Amino acid sequence: xxxxxxxxxxxxxxxxxxxxxxxxxxxxxxxxxxxxxxxxxxxxxxxxxxxxxxxxxxxxxxxxxxxxxxxxxxxxxxxxxxxxxxxxxxxxxxxxxxxxxxxxxxxxxxxxxxxxxxxxxxxxxxxxxxxxxxxxxxxxxxxxxxxxxxxxxxxxxxxxxxxxxxxxxxxxxxxxxxxxxxxxxxxxxxxxxxxxxxxxxxxxxxxxxxxxxxxxxxxxxxxxxxxxxxxxxxxxxxxxxxxxxxxxxxxxxxx
Amino acid sequence: xxxxxxxxxxxxxxxxxxxxxxxxxxxxxxxxxxxxxxxxxxxxxxxxxxxxxxxxxxxxxxxxxxxxxxxxxxxxxxxxxxxxxxxxxxxxxxxxxxxxxxxxxxxxxxxxxxxxxxxxxxxxxxxxxxxxxxxxxxxxxxxxxxxxxxxxxxxxxxxxxxxxxxxxxxxxxxxxxxxxxxxxxxxxxxxxxxxxxxxxxxxxxxxxxxxxxxxxxxxxxxxxxxxxxxxxxxxxxxxxx
Lengths: 255, 241
Ligand SMILES: Nc1ncnc2c1ncn2[C@@H]1O[C@H](COP(=O)(O)OP(=O)(O)O)[C@@H](O)[C@H]1O
Ligand SMILES: [Mg+2]
Known about the structure:
The complex is a heterodimer of chains A (255) and B (241). Chain A is 34% helix and 23% strand. In chain A, α4 (112-122) packs across α5, α4 runs parallel beside α6 and α6 packs parallel to α7 (182-197). With 255 residues, chain A is an alpha/beta fold. Chain A starts with 13 loop residues before the first helix and ends in a 6-residue tail after the last helix. In chain A, the strands form 2 sheets. In chain A, strands 5-6-7-3-8-9 form a 6-stranded mixed sheet, sandwiched between helices. A 3-stranded antiparallel sheet of chain A has the order 2-1-4, covered by helices on one side. Chain A has 10 helices and 9 strands. Chain B is globular, with a radius of gyration of 21 Å. Helix content of chain B is 80%, strand content 0%. Chain B has a domain at 28-185: MetI-like fold. With 241 residues, chain B is mostly helical. Chain A binds chain B through residues 1, 6-7, 9-10, 12, 14, 17, 71, 74, 76, 95-96, 99-100, 102, 106, 108-110, 118-119, 122-123, 141-142, 144-146, 148-149, 166, and chain B through 129-130, 132-141, 143, 147, 150-151, 232-237, 240-241. Residues 66-67, 103, 174 of chain A line the site of magnesium ion. Magnesium ion (MG) binds next to α2 of chain A.
């Protein structure tokens, strides 16, 4: 992220976030979002509106800008132009009420349990929830193991438990199941589904078309830094409107 | 000049017989250098951590300066501390000159830049890995720093060790501010310098041997700590279930 300007989310007063908590973060409205690097535009005038509830799946070829978009929405990156509005709040003011599960989980050099304790303590959560969270992601028996020694699937499940420990109103997941075994994929899909049913807004990036069909309420198809198509899942999968999405779903190379 | 073999023999006898003078000198050396290391870590680690997570105008210049200060010549530090602590100096009223306190001050000044510069490097690498996650969790700067210090603890032990090594091995600063006074401020390095110049090679050699053994022992100890930590990180599972 060397070229890109990072944001100041950290320094925003906590109380401001707390005061705004009564007001929902959704709907999300993004307009004219642009992110430039010296070599050109990564996102180029992106518009997007997300309704209050549900699970949005973001798809698109490698390099389309999916990860960049998540970071802009989460307030980790500052756009060159355009705006992100979480029901009136700028992205940096919404960060504390959201969580992002990164594609590569970043775990602290501590035990599995201590990774959760850390977040529960830092965010003022109830530490008694730790064991329930661990059991939920199937890691109760690994509580005392060093987190860095977990397998890929276990590490990603811990990252998901950590994200849930912050009680996010919006949960972003960036290809969380890429290269995981079927059991871990199932656990992650189940937990995300349960969170969604509880009212957590889900924004999920995946390349797995079968997974997208299982979890998506609506699909955002990104192509070359713009939203090529945004439709309800029931319409997108049987009959995508754009040629690029049709090629993508058919397994043809999309550039 | 004595035969070298004979000098070695006498030196070993001194060490093995538990010579009182020898162990007084060794004890003071450890006391001074360990105190200086602890104080330097208390100052240098937070400074290194703060520099690792902060971006500000002039940061590059600060880093260059701290890196340059790592190479401070001990005699220059000794001279500066001497000027401050001497009777007519600004801190003369403390009456520290020619006491172990003055030696601790001098060694602390000598190794704070080492601890700060090396820990900055270690923690900046770690922060590169953690930064986005920290920002996503909205951690405060204080929370970021304490987390980095804790998670980098094993690498930071090596940093402390580098500081201790430099403190224990230097002679220029302690000889100026301590004065190498017998039973008061005489440490291993100053004693070696003095006894060698007086031609008392056995004591100098005995001290040299002890100094080497201490250096080896401390390094081995830290190495073992690190290894057991690494082992925990990779195979700890079975033992802990
Ligand atoms: N920090 C950066 N500096 C320059 N280019 C970047 C940076 N991060 C990502 N990119 C580029 O932006 C494009 C979109 O990246 P990304 O959002 O990660 O794609 P994806 O849709 O696969 O997640 C890619 O071409 C990538 O090379
Ligand atoms: Mg990506």
